[in-house]
Amino acid sequence: MVFLKNTFLVLCFSLVLSSSSFSDEGFPGRAKYPDVPYISLSDFYQGYMEDKYLVVDARSPFEYKVIQIKGAVNVPVNSDSFYKDINELAKTTDKTIVFYCNGRRCMKSFKAAVKSKLPNVLVYDAGVFEWAKQYPEQSVLMGESPLPVDKLIPSSKLKEHFIPLAKFEELIPQSILIDVRDLKDRRGNGLFLLADKSAPLSRPKKLEKYVNKAIAEDKILLAYDNAGKQVRWLQYYLEKKGVHKYYFMQGGAKYYTYK
Question: I need a labelling partner for 161 at 20 to 30 A (CA). Which of 87, 140, 153, 167 fits?
């Protein structure tokens, strides 16, 4: 009987472990930052509707302007003033701060929680897109709320606009070519012998200047970033502006550098 009892306890313990492991599947940040408390989509929504949380978007200002949780405050984790800004914000409320970023593999929310050094924080790590699809009424896309779900750009459409380096270079003479990396990533001139113009996503007026030029001259707009990830946000802007002839360099500047 003792043996059966012990066996039963072991099985129960194993089920608890496997259940916990399953619940964390697809959320790599939870294993990487085991000391940072996180919250599920449904629990976050319930607390959000009860006004329990101060919601903080830890992404860049450009990403925030494209899509955000309604009412969220943007405090970019990569900003030099992040620690000061988030601690000043924390002084204005008794609410729990919930950080979020793009999706399950995005670590900005976890990094923000750690970097803030605040005790009363949570991380919502399913990301803004899962929230937007589930709760469009509490989301904003390019200034529109309720969020128009049909305007969310699928990854398949993004892939259609990526082209390999050889094709990218071939199109340069008939295009407006922009480098959307931040100046700290650019570190001097662009990659294409001054054919490209610096138009960081962090400087929207400069970006708009070259996008408008491409539209006015009916030219193809070519753009590249550091690793082929930030152009995802540029695509929303281009689609809203009515630009249809545009392509991104596959792999970004890092691919070009190590080619």
Answer: 140
